[in-house]
Automatic annotation (TrEMBL), chain A:
<keyword id="KW-1003">Cell membrane</keyword>
<dbReference type="InterPro" id="IPR027417">
    <property type="entry name" value="P-loop_NTPase"/>
</dbReference>
<dbReference type="InterPro" id="IPR050086">
    <property type="entry name" value="MetN_ABC_transporter-like"/>
</dbReference>
<comment type="similarity">
    <text>Belongs to the ABC transporter superfamily.</text>
</comment>
<dbReference type="InterPro" id="IPR017871">
    <property type="entry name" value="ABC_transporter-like_CS"/>
</dbReference>
<keyword id="KW-0029">Amino-acid transport</keyword>
<dbReference type="GO" id="GO:0005524">
    <property type="term" value="F:ATP binding"/>
</dbReference>
<dbReference type="InterPro" id="IPR003593">
    <property type="entry name" value="AAA+_ATPase"/>
</dbReference>
<dbReference type="InterPro" id="IPR003439">
    <property type="entry name" value="ABC_transporter-like_ATP-bd"/>
</dbReference>
From TrEMBL, chain B:
<keyword id="KW-0813">Transport</keyword>
<dbReference type="InterPro" id="IPR043429">
    <property type="entry name" value="ArtM/GltK/GlnP/TcyL/YhdX-like"/>
</dbReference>
<keyword id="KW-0472">Membrane</keyword>
<feature type="domain" description="ABC transmembrane type-1">
    <location>
        <begin position="73"/>
        <end position="293"/>
    </location>
</feature>
<keyword id="KW-0029">Amino-acid transport</keyword>
<feature type="transmembrane region" description="Helical">
    <location>
        <begin position="31"/>
        <end position="50"/>
    </location>
</feature>
<dbReference type="InterPro" id="IPR000515">
    <property type="entry name" value="MetI-like"/>
</dbReference>
<feature type="transmembrane region" description="Helical">
    <location>
        <begin position="71"/>
        <end position="99"/>
    </location>
</feature>
<dbReference type="InterPro" id="IPR035906">
    <property type="entry name" value="MetI-like_sf"/>
</dbReference>
């Protein structure tokens, strides 16, 4: 059984039909990168996977459970899905450690000591074990994003969603975050990553999905989709992104 | 300003203004103002110390009377605290209701706010004092229309769980606290709503994505951040509430500070020293509240730096 299965997903904002029938699966342990032009609906697709956006048509199955079903326990489903946002969205009123424990204690009902131990282990994993007492404002963007990853990991998710995790970062900070994500992929984490980092997608992804205008145009191994795209739209997009005059931050 | 000439490139020497003759700036206006204020201050001190109408001995004696002290502690301080507890709790609940997707909840909250904001507090308190007439059998909590249902089922007895004596509730401090608290809740609702709306939507989304229920999202993530916006106006509301406790006379609450002072004043035919005594009490209490507000603001400002609002800070700036 696929970890995530999306069937015939449609989503509109008013008259703007953003997702126009998406069918798509993510297998356990797979790293899937979603690429595509701005406004093509990548973020919307990702946000439908944990129902931050509610689709009008279609189903989203997580471990076989339809989370678009009204009877589904949505909060329980969301616990298994970690999400990392472009703007980090750390809780500014909580210390780094408390950011990583608040959901553990209040949702998973873990004891304080256990939650802190797990949080420290995950902060260690992202290379920030000495920042536990700091507040998010006192960290650089790259550090904040790594805390956000540790916060999500502390809930022991089965799947991690990343929405352009490095797009808000200064170029020299991108590498640290991508290193953490690469390590996570090697550890076998199932990941669904919206990104403009083609080098990362090519290296880490098991599968690349190219989206345009609310549909999946093409998907397959990175060597095929990025290296040798079949569709004209994919080629146009990649030509624009990989254009030598177009400055891309390299990890 | 001189920046214009300073930055203009390559002007010839002749065009340049000569060296500035530096003369220390004098502030004649400032000295005049200081002199005037000094004279006024001296006059005030003179008035306070020498004018017999102040009758300071009587002022402090009146302030020291047991009923007056009680009036201050219970009528002023206790009622302020209790009314603000009711007001803040009610206001936050109303604000959350107002912002909910459920039209019934938000409608009820709107109606409540409309009603209590429309009535002057003095009249509201007067009304609270008379409400006992509505519930001459006492106020019962139980199944509505229970006698009808019981009748229909052919049973006897009643389904009321407990009954309160309305004439006890709608008198004195309790009526005052209910009246002031509900009225305050209507105002606090707007303040709390503004506070909740000031928190970035991404915060609630991040908390939801971690599996928190909407109640937890509110309590653990949104409200603590909204407090930063809610606390300063709430401090003002508290100070206003402190002063509005003098309206308790409408209920009536005879233990109220100013009523007690006035009754002393009328006994001894001294009205002005009584006004001074009341003023001193309110000045002292308000000053204490302002200190409290400072510490609350500092507490809820944690993690937000000192000046820069969060949104204004570019990602990746600062830090190690
Ligand atoms: N909350 C919203 N309300 C209205 N329209 C929205 C909302 N969120 C997204 N949209 C619209 O949906 C479309 C797709 O947005 P989406 O954010 O999914 O694109 P994207 O592929 O992630 O683009 P980008 O690469 O710029 O992040 C856009 O036209 C956007 O304006
Ligand atoms: Mg996006």
């Amino acid at each position: 059984m696929a970890l995530v299965e999306i069937k015939n997903l449609h989503k509109s904002f008013g008259s703007n039909h953003v997702l126009r029938g998406i069918d798509f699966t993510v297998e356990q342990g797979e790293v899937v990168c979603v690429i595509g032009p701005s406004g093509s609906g990548k973020s919307t697709l990702l946000r439908c996977v944990n129902l931050l956006e509610v689709p009008e048509v279609g189903e989203v199955f997580v471990r076989g459970e339809d989370i678009t079903d009204r009877d589904c326990h949505l909060d329980a489903a969301r616990q298994q899905i970690g999400m990392v946002f472009q703007q980090f969205n750390l809780f500014p009123h909580l210390s780094v450690l408390a950011n990583c424990t608040v959901a553990q204690t209040s949702v998973l009902k873990r004891g304080k000591a256990e939650a802190e131990q797990i949080a420290r282990a995950n902060l260690d994993r992202v290379g920030l074990n000495e920042k536990v007492t700091a507040y998010p404002m006192q960290l650089s963007g790259g550090q904040q994003q790594r805390v956000a990853i540790a916060r999500a990991l502390s809930m022991d998710p089965a799947l991690m969603l990343f929405d352009e995790p490095t797009s808000a970062l200064d170029p020299e900070l991108v590498g640290d975050v991508l290193t953490v994500m690469r390590k996570l992929a090697l550890d076998g984490m199932t990941m669904l990553v919206v990104t403009h980092e083609m080098a990362f997608a090519r290296e880490v992804a098991d599968r690349v999905v190219f989206m345009d205008a609310g549909v999946i145009v093409e998907q397959g191994p990175p060597a095929e989709v990025i290296g040798n795209p079949k569709e004209e739209r994919t080629r146009t997009f990649l030509r624009r992104v990989l254009d030598p005059t177009h400055v891309e931050p390299t990890p | 300003m001189t920046t214009d000439t300073a930055t203009r490139p390559a002007a010839s020497d002749a065009d340049r203004p000569g060296p500035i003759k530096a003369v220390p700036v004098r502030h004649p206006g400032r000295w005049v103002a200081i002199a005037i204020i000094a004279v006024l201050a001296a006059m005030l001190v003179h008035l306070l110390v020498t004018n017999k109408a102040f009758d300071w001995d009587f002022v402090f004696q009146a302030m020291n009377q047991k009923p007056v002290i009680n009036g201050f502690l219970k009528g002023t301080l206790l009622v302020t605290v209790l009314s603000m507890v009711v007001g803040v709790a009610g206001g936050v609940i109303l604000a959350v209701m107002r912002l909910s997707d459920n039209p019934i909840l938000s409608g009820v909250a709107w109606l409540f706010t409309w009603f209590f904001r429309s009535i002057p507090r003095y009249i509201l308190l007067f009304t609270m004092g008379t409400l006992g007439i509505l519930f001459q059998q006492g106020i019962s909590f139980g199944v509505p229309f229970d006698w009808k249902i019981i009748d229909w089922l052919g049973l006897s007895g009643d389904w009321r769980f407990f009954t309160l004596d309305a004439n006890q509730i709608f008198t004195g401090l309790v009526a005052g606290v209910i009246g002031l608290g509900l009225s305050e809740a209507a105002y606090m609702a707007e303040i709390a709503r503004a506070g909740i709306l000031s928190v970035d939507k991404g915060q609630a989304e991040a908390a939801q994505a971690l599996g928190m229920s909407s109640g937890k999202v509110m309590r653990r993530v949104v409200l603590p951040q909204a407090m930063r916006v809610i606390v300063p106006p709430t401090g003002n509301e508290t100070i206003a509430m402190l002063k509005d406790t003098s309206l308790l006379l409408a209920v009536p609450v005879l233990g109220e500070l100013f009523y007690q002072l006035q009754s002393i004043g009328s006994t001894y035919y001294k009205t002005f020293p009584i006004a001074v005594a009341a003023t001193l009490y309110y000045l002292a209490a308000t000053s204490v509240l302002m200190v409290g507000q400072y510490f609350l603001e500092r507490h809820f400002g944690r993690g937000f730096g000192t000046q820069a609002p969060r949104a204004a800070r570019p990602a990746g700036a600062g830090g190690a």
